[in-house]
Amino acid sequence: MQIHAIAGRMIVISLLAAGFLLNGCSDKGPKGPPPPPEVSVVTIQARQVASTTELPGRTSAYLVAEVRPQVAGIIQKRLFTEGANVRAGQVLFQIDASLYQAALDNAKASLARSEAHLTTIQLKAARLRELIAEKAVSQQDYDDATAALKQTQADIQFGKASVEVARINLQHTAITAPISGRIGRSSVTEGALVTSHQPLPLATIQQLDPMYVDVTQSTAEILRLRRQLQEGRIEISKKHLEGVRLLLEDGSEYPWKGTLQFQDITVDPTTGSVILRMVFPNPKGLLLPNMFVRTVIQEGIRKNAILVPQQAVSRDLKGNPFTFVVDAKGAVQQRPLTLDRTIGDAWLVTSGLESGERVIVEGILKVKPGALVRTVPFENSAKTDGKGQKAAPSVQTR
């Protein structure tokens, strides 16, 4: 009985060993093809975007007037507060007017004397005219009387002009504001001697509402914009030039929009750029002269713009951009691209992609041209436009 039990155990052990051998042989057999890699894609959709350009510049006052005296004299009074707003015609300084008042009185007296002589000379000339017809007086006497009359008439005209000059000089002793605006510090005090048309202004008035903003734009950008207009790639209307945005030095956006007023016609030979001037309202005085700002100008509207996420674009050894797309059969294709500029985290593509194509955004390192892939929609934590692409309302250049 023991012999039979031992023989049964050996049979069981042999069967188990055979099973293990069979399992080991099956593990070393051929496997099936691996599943295709998974990649995230976005579907390219052509859309309309606003084309903008961001340009640095500086603010300047809308009107600037340097206050200078037009007559010489001693400053008697300063009639304004430095840094305050003044109105046009307001008296700012008062020059000692005593000498100019005396000059006016003297000119009036000289005029009155000439006018008093006029009547006597007129009567004398009229009598001699009657007598010369009867040959009762000589021709010389008549000619002298006529000349004296003309001389007196000329003296009267000269006297009137002298009176007017003296009156104007007297008025200029009260120095008034030529424009309305904010006046700066005064360069003179009471008792200072000033001269006519001196080089140093007494004060400067600046009108700060509205304000100018002058920016520079390269001629290359101007030529590019004109070429795109001619090719019909962008459209410009008047309203595009009236919605200029302004970014202040701290990065905040100015609450009022400006208008592009004109473009200078002279190119700066040192920088190869021209001046663009914009006008911005400044009702609260936030803008001050010579502030550094950045303007965002809407150049126009781009129709059928192709945008692709920046992370979907790679570059070869020569620096040429390309991307991978998935065709209708699920195969990967490599596409060379022509890029225009960045728009946030996307590239504006001018050639290489068509609307409706699927571009690989994530999983690029796992694929190569011709390989089959399994696609899933690309999900971005940022706000998208509903088609898997991040919303980009405007095309921006720097």
Describe the structure.
The protein is α+β, with helices and mostly antiparallel strands and 398 residues long. It folds into 4 domains: 38-49 and 303-397, conserved putative lor/sdh protein from methanococcus maripaludis s2 fold (Beta Barrel), CATH 2.40.420.20; 52-61 and 209-302, Efflux pump adaptor protein, beta barrel domain (Elongation Factor Tu (Ef-tu), domain 3), CATH 2.40.30; 69-91 and 178-200, Beta Barrel (OB fold (Dihydrolipoamide Acetyltransferase, E2P)); 98-171, Helix Hairpins (Orthogonal Bundle). The chain contains 4 helices and 22 strands. It has helices spanning 2-27, 98-133, 139-171, 219-231, and strands at 38-43, 47-67, 73-78, 85-86, 91-95, 174-176, 181-183, 193-194, 203-218, 234-235, 245-247, 259-263, 273-280, 292-309, 314-315, 321-326, 332-336, 338-343, 346-351, 358-362, 374-377, 394-397. The strands form 3 sheets. Strands 2, 4, 7, 9, 10, 11, 12, 13, 14, 18, 19 and 22 form a 12-stranded mixed beta sheet that branches. Strand 15 (314-315) and strand 16 form a beta hairpin. The longest helix has 36 residues, at 98-133. It is elongated and about 150 Å long. It starts with a helix and ends with a strand. The relative contact order is 0.19.
